[in-house]
Amino acid sequence: MNPKVVEDIQDFEQFMKRREAASEAYVQGDAEPLSHIVARVFLATFFPPNGGFSQGTEEVAARYESDAEIFEQGSHFSFEILQMAASDGIAYWVGFMRGEARMRGKAEATPMNLRVTEVFRREDGEWKMVHRHADPLAENKK
């Protein structure tokens, strides 16, 4: 394998630890760590679990900020990465986010299992999220 590709993959794997930590803060109601990895140059898009979409760097960043406010302390999610790759300044991961969300105004935690695709691009030498698509995981029907 090309040494540059190996370096990109290793760098992205290290970055994903930061991405997971940002997710953990986010579901506690703190969008600040996520704000450091959201794209600020060119375009960004977000397809949230409840439908609709946001487009544009400022719009997407503002949406993440406002959406974090619905979560309360005690939420927890883990990443289950099915595949990921990085090369030539582009990276992605595909998989699941599983956990429980404590939502403002609700007494009980809500179980959540999401299918997730996230795409990243290098901006000023750092990985930045340019696209996130998350939707509820439906059970396979046979």
Secondary-structure blueprint:
Elements: H1 3-26, H2 32-35, E1 45-47, E2 54-55, H3 57-68, E3 76-87, E4 90-101, E5 110-123, E6 126-136
Parallel strand pairs: 1-6
Antiparallel strand pairs: 1-2, 3-4, 4-5, 5-6
Folded structure, characterized:
The protein is α+β, with helices and mostly antiparallel strands. It has a single domain, classed as Roll (Nuclear Transport Factor 2, Chain: A). Helices cover 28% and strands 38% of the residues. The protein has three helices and six strands; from the N terminus they run ααββαββββ. Strands 2-1-6-5-4-3 form a six-stranded mixed beta sheet. Strand 4 and strand 5 form a beta hairpin. The radius of gyration is 15 Å and the shape is globular. The chain starts with a helix and ends in a 6-residue tail after the last strand. The mean pLDDT is 92.
Major beta sheet summary = 6 strands, mixed
**What gap, in angstroms, lies between the N and C termini?**
39 Å
- The outline comes out as globular
The mean pLDDT is: 92
What can be said about this structure in brief?
This protein has 142 residues and is of the alpha+beta class. It has helices at 3-26, 32-35, 57-68, and strands at residues 45-47, 54-55, 76-87, 90-101, 110-123, 126-136.
Q: What key attributes describe this structure?
A:
alpha+beta; 142 residues; single chain; Nuclear Transport Factor 2, Chain: A
